[in-house]
Structure formats: structure tokens, C-alpha cells
Amino acid sequence: MGKADFLSPKAISNRIKSKGLQKLRWYCQMCQKQCRDENGFKCHCMSESHQRQLLLASEDPTKFMDYFSDEFKSDFVELLRRRFGTKRVHNNIVYNEYISDREHVHMNSTQWETLTDFTKWLGREGLCKVDETPKGWYVQYIDRDPETIRRQEEQARKKKQELDDEERSARFIEEQVRRGRDSKETDETPVYTELKRENEEEKVAFNMGASSSVAGPSKSSSVLGASALKTAAASSTKRKDTSFGSDSRAEKKKKSALEEIIEMEEKKKKKQQSVRTDYWLQPNIVVKVVTKRLGEKYHKKKAVVTEVRENYTAVVRMIDSGDKLKLDQNHVETVIPAPGKKVLIVNGPYRDTEALLEGIDEKHFCATLTLDSGQHKGKRVDVAYEDFSKLA
């Protein structure tokens, strides 16, 4: 009986049935053939090709089992890493997603009889973190990629540096508070000084009150009274000026503790905000593509910025292939060349200044540059990694 025509209803029905997943008991792992029913599987087992595969497997069964086990482990772990990353997930969820592939390696051809045995083996080998709960076994992938480990170490180093800066700032504030408290106690202590006349030639006039005559005060007594009143008014004004000056000095001394630190921090922030911007792209610099949306062809590859549009978008030319791409600044990062090469400062107080790379400080994530242009030419400065890039 010949095969049905390609466009016949029976042929179309057979192709539709063969697309989906079939029953596991009708699958032959050695021949990698899926049968749709028991009769088809029986006919396949009696076929000559299946008998030859069985003879090959009988010669060295351990070799074939190890091969299928290694394939199953590799595909399972790769799916766990790519799909779930380092998240904690139920092992059955990962397995159901794994067997949705029609060409997957079946577990009955491996050295593990159940999914639980395979999960325990992953934990013993250190490939994943596994733990048993009332809901079943959970797995968590352990990322041992050198690039990931290096990135985690850099993040931990940055966090430690920020904590050290906070501790230094806290100690500085405590020292300023202590100094302010000591100066306040010193100011409140009264100081007694000797009474001295400022001007020896100044005449002292006294008003002795009303005279003995009943008719009224004389001319001389009125002059003395006027001069005494002027002297009293002048002395009171002087006392007020002196008291006002002392109050202002006291306020100034009180301000030198905490408010001085706050003002200093505000000035520092304003200065940093005035010289730093949230865009850094510049023409003729070398950048590295960090986005994965463009595929592996461009990922981690270097390019030269040929044009900057609206501060945040750049047209770049790939160094390897010469392709031109339009990328956002979030999709690229600066490139640090070898010491002795020329760089361009793209952000900060020395923006748009060419410099020479002298050395790299990996501990503090910065580099020492010698300015090669501008009014500060020849000056050595420390600049963060993200604030300069290699010149094309």
C-alpha cells in the first residue's frame, strides 16, 4: 500500500499529529524516533535499523548512557541559566519547559531514574543550590562565570568604599560638633577686664541738678546739663553698638559648628551639579557596545563615535566590520586604553579636555591623567572610569 498524496487529508492529518508531543513510552532514544501508537512502535522495534542500534548499544552500554546523561544535564542546566538566571524555582517547572522541546533527551535513557534523583545530583555536584520543601524540590543556579564573579567583587568593593566614606564623614561631623560645643562653653564664661579711659583729653561734665536760686537755672548750669545729656546719649549708643557687635559675633561663633558643615556640603553639591551633566557622548571617542539586543555580532565590540545627536544619541562605526549603528548612550560605555595613550575627558570639571593616561587605580575605580590641553595643561588629576574614554 503506497503513501498518501502530500496534499491529501490523511497526509495533512499525519503531519499535524507529528508536530506535537507524543507519549514517552512510544519513543526510541537510540534511534531518536517518536511513534504515534503502539502498533507503530512495535513495527519500529522489529525493523532492521533498530536492531543495528541495539547491537551497537550492547557493545558498550555505559558509553551511550553517559552520553545521554551528559546531554540531558547540559541542556537542563543551560535552560535553567538562560530562562531563570539565579532565581529559586521549582524543579518541575524547569523540567516541563525542558520537555516541551520535541527533540529533547528523555530521562529514561540517562543514569537518573527520577527528577528528584537528578535534582539531588545537581546539589551534590555544586551546580545548583537545592532545598526540599513541602511543595517539592527547588533549584537555584550558581553562576560561576569569571565575568560575573569580577562584577560582583567590584560591586562589593564600591559598597565598602561608600561605607568608608560615610564613616569618615560621620567622624568629621562629630569632631565639628565637639569643637562647637567646646567653643560655646568658652564663650559663655565671663571675662573681667580693667576699666580704661579711651581718650585722656576728653572732658567729663557733670550736671549737679537745680541751683539754689528760685528764679531759674543759670546759663552755665544749662550748658553743663546739655553736655552731660550728650555724653550720656553717646555712651548709651556706644553700649548698644558694642552689645550688637558681641551678639553678632556670638551668632557667628555658634554658626561655625553644624551650619558650617551643611553650607560646605551644599556648596560642594552645587559645584558638582554645575560641572557634571547626565550626558557624556563626544565625537571621535572609542566606546564599547554593551547591549545584547543587537545580537552577539556587536555585543562587547568597540566602535568610534562619528556623530552625536541631541546629546544622548550617537552614530557609531564598528571597528571590526565597519557597520554604522545609531545607539543610545545607555547602550555603550567608555573604553580605558593602556597607560601612555591619549584620552578625552567627557564629564566633570575638565570636560572636553584631552589628556594622557598615566596610571589606573583599580581600588578606587579611577585613573591618573595629565591634562594635555586647555588652561590647566600639565596638571595631574584623578578621574573616574566613566568620565573619560579613549580617543580614536
**Class from secondary-structure proportions:** alpha+beta
Largest sheet: 5 strands, antiparallel
The CATH topology of the domain at 20-141 turns out to be Arc Repressor Mutant, subunit A
Order of helices and strands: HEEHHHEHHEEHHHEEEEEEEEEE
CATH class of the domain at 20-141 equals Mainly Alpha
Round the mean pLDDT to the nearest integer and report it: 78
Q: Largest beta sheet: what is the strand line-up?
A: 9-8-7-6-10
Distance between the termini: 72 Å
Measured as a percent range, the helix fraction is 40-55%
* Beta-strand fraction estimate: 15-25%
Q: Which blocks of ≥5 consecutive residues have pLDDT under 50?
A: 210-226
CATH architecture of the domain at 20-141: Orthogonal Bundle
Tally of alpha and pi helices: 9
Mass-distribution shape: elongated
Question: CATH superfamily assignment of the domain at 20-141?
Answer: DNA/RNA-binding protein Kin17, conserved domain
Whole-number radius of gyration? 43 Å
Number of strands: 15
